[in-house]
Amino acid sequence: MDNLDYHFDLPSALVPNEASPEWLNKADNCWQLTCAAFVGLQSVPGLIILYGSVMKKKWAVNSAFMALYAFASALLCWVLWGHRMSFGTQLTPLLGKPNIALSQDYLLLQGRGGYIPVATFVFYEFAFAAITVILLAGSLLGRMNFYAWILFVPLWITFSYTIGAYSIWGDGFFQERGIVDFSGGYVIHVSSGVAGFTAAYWVGPRLSRDRQSSPPNNIIQVLGGAGLLWLGWSGFNGGSPMAADMIASLAVLNTHFCTAVSLLMWLSLDMIVYRKSSVIGAVQGMITGLVCITPGAGLVEPWAAMLMGLMSGSLPWYTMMVLHKKSAFFQTVDDPLGVFHTHAVAGLLGGILSGVFAKPSYLRMYYNTQDKYGPGLYYGLIDGKAKFLQGLHQMGYQIAGALFIAAWNVVITSIICIFISRFVNLRMDEEDLKIGDDAAHGEEAYALWGDGERMIPTRLSMTPRLPSICRR
User: Fold this and answer.
1) Would 111 disulfide with which of 21, 105, 361, 368, CB 3.0-4.6 Å?
2) 24-427, superfamily in CATH?
3) CA-CA distance, 270 to 317, in Å (whole number)?
4) Phi first, then psi: what are they for 96, rounded to 5°?
5) Confidence class of residue 459 from pLDDT cuts 50, 70 and 90?
């Protein structure tokens, strides 16, 4: 049988064609499309479910709808101008030239894996832009005027997110100088945390009774949304190499390892200090672990990821559970989901620790360069004075990049909020705030008999009830 020579006439559909050219790396393209879908699922339905469940019942619809609208609006902005502002031809050291990204007349060159279609890259990066502004929304739930939110999303994507993406990931100022931000600790998490906190200041707080008592309306669904967020992070960090290679595998493993350690660390602190194993606390610890590992997911060893998990489960816990309650500054700003702590604090921590633990060989594999990126400070200490000085230099860029992202978002987010307030109120009316979803959208998440609703008569309810003795 092995010596038989088989000849087949291939159907025309199986003959290579222009849709599958020789330059296309099918494995990398498949992996990248999968990662893009994972990141998209983090927002829709992940954060939709999480937001709609973690807020009190009267804000369930509004919270979920803010996320859904932002996803759709961000896609329109990204394709029409945002992508090329973030990854196109340089206009300034902080910004690319606005242009449409629908054209397929240029290809995305991958140093390790070959070529993939530009459409794949556009959609993958869109999912990052969308989740950033949706994370930001977590600071504004329960009181922002939805019409103001409609204006806020495209303005913030255009004038804030694109500058961070281009300066650190495109051909911008910090990228040229070798800042380490593997998958968005600065571009996404410091940005969303600081911008959310700033916008929350301008929008104002919820009603005092809502701040004092805001129980989740469905904790089981909170866990479901959190689970989609956690598993979706495989694409979030695993897709950053733009190749199905060893760095992608390492990034996925480190992501989940750090997250598990962080969750358990947060849970342990809750049990030690408050004598309760809080479900919401565990979700917060999960998120801080995901955020902290993001800037260095494919650049650190698993043992370093474990240390990052221990720190991401403890330092943000302290800022949220202790410092926030004692600080008059934090108390003046209403941040319902603690986005500043889970994203800005954890993202900054991850960026700094990436500058400490980034392994030189992984930096060379990922960035394809020998000299641009200094070794992590830890490896600089091991390798001698020259390498240590390079590590200090790298750490300087890590700190400078974080300060730039934070400062830019404070300024631009403030300008956007002030501008919008000239046309529409940022905050809902007091009477509407008392009602919630029904006032904002004319809809409610749960319309239950006995909760202000009258039971609609049915044929069964109108049937005369027999005496109990007859029903036996």
Assistant:
1) 368
2) Ammonium transporter AmtB like domains (1.10.3430.10)
3) 9
4) -90, 170
5) very low
**pLDDT tens-digit series, residues 166-179:** 999 998 999 888 89
The predicted model gives 118-142 an average pLDDT of: 95
Round the average pLDDT of the chain to a whole number and report it.
88
Q: What's the pLDDT tens digit per position in 317-365?
A: 999 999 998 888 888 999 999 999 999 999 999 999 999 999 999 999 9
Distance between CA atoms of 261 and 304, rounded to whole angstroms? Answer: 12
Q: How many CA within 13 A on the CB side of residue 450?
A: 0
SS (H, E, C) the chain: CCCCCCCCCCCHHHCCCCCCCCCECHHHHHHHHHHHHHHHHHHHHHHHHHHHHHCCHHHHHHHHHHHHHHHHHHHHHHHHHHHHHHHCCEEECCEECCCCCCCCCCCEEECCCEEECHHHHHHHHHHHHHHHHHHHHCCCCCCECHHHHHHHHHHHHHHHHHHHHHHHCCCCHHHHHCCCCCCCHHHHHHHHHHHHHHHHHHHCCCCHHHHHCCCCCCHHHHHHHHHHHHHHHHHHHHCCCCCCCHHHHHHHHHHHHHHHHHHHHHHHHHHHHHCCCCHHHHHHHHHHHHHHHHHHCCCCCHHHHHHHHHHHCCHHHHHHHHHHHHCHHHHHCCCCCCHHHHHHHHHHHHHHHHHHHCCHHHHHHHHCCCCCCCCCHHHHHHHCHHHHHHHHHHHHHHHHHHHHHHHHHHHHHHHHHHHHHCCCCCECCHHHHHHCHHHHHCCCCCCCECCCECCCCCHHHHCCCCCHHHHC
Q: What are the pLDDT digits (tens) for 211-220?
A: 988 899 999 9
Residue 452 pLDDT > 60: no
